[in-house]
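By convention, each integer encodes one residue's backbone shape. The lines below illustrate.
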Amino acid sequence: MSKIVTLSFFLAKALIMEKSSYLFAIMAVVIMVIALGLGSVDIGSRNKLFEDVLLTSQGYLLLIAAFFYAFMLVSRDRNLGLFVLPIANGVSRGQYLAALMGAMVWVVGILFVLFLITDIFFLIIVEDEVHGMLLWQIFLYFLASLLAAFLFIGIASYVTLTNAVLYVAALFFIGNALDELYLYAYQMQSDSWLQWTASFGYYLLPNFSLFDWQAQIVNRRDIPLYDSAVLPLLYFGIWTLFLYFIALAHFRKKAMILGY
């Protein structure tokens, strides 16, 4: 375990040192300024616009960062043959793959923690209180971003980087709409084929809609604990293990040469 943590931290540090990381920092500051500027705008519900802008922009920035760093990580691993060095020094292939995924947790996690701290500060300034569910939604967006990054790592083990980007992007947009498709299918009670398709997609495809409770949270609606916490955490854990073993199945067969 210590080897995995050390190696993942080393890989994450190399990613963070990228000059493009400053762009994410600038974008984060811009998001905060815009949200704070909209804090006093009343659209019928106090602070609703402020919270919507804050959550939506931070969620997408976490996702963009996860995609970008996952692409950079896999690209370096593939083009530079980074895997050769740690494996040659006593790290198993399974440990190295776990370190790749762990590096994403470090990198995206830093951005998440920064968002969490600044959100608490801004919520106190704008609303004089900290609504815990708003912070929980940022955490769910963090999990969704990690799931997208792990999905990219898993798919990129079998296809080119360009194809992996396209597949993950398609799965992400489909996964965000699965809840609406599921609801629509079961309102059309006469169409059993549509219901079967919706159920299949809802449970077997990467369902990113399980991590999005923003509308209910911003409108202060009650959400069952199982739906907003237990199910997303369980779903994230199952998919992470699945993607890890899917990627490992191919990684174990890979020849230790450059330019594969």
Q: What stands out?
A: Residues 2-251 form one domain. The two ends are 28 Å apart (CA to CA). The chain has a mean pLDDT of 82. The chain has ten helices and no strands.
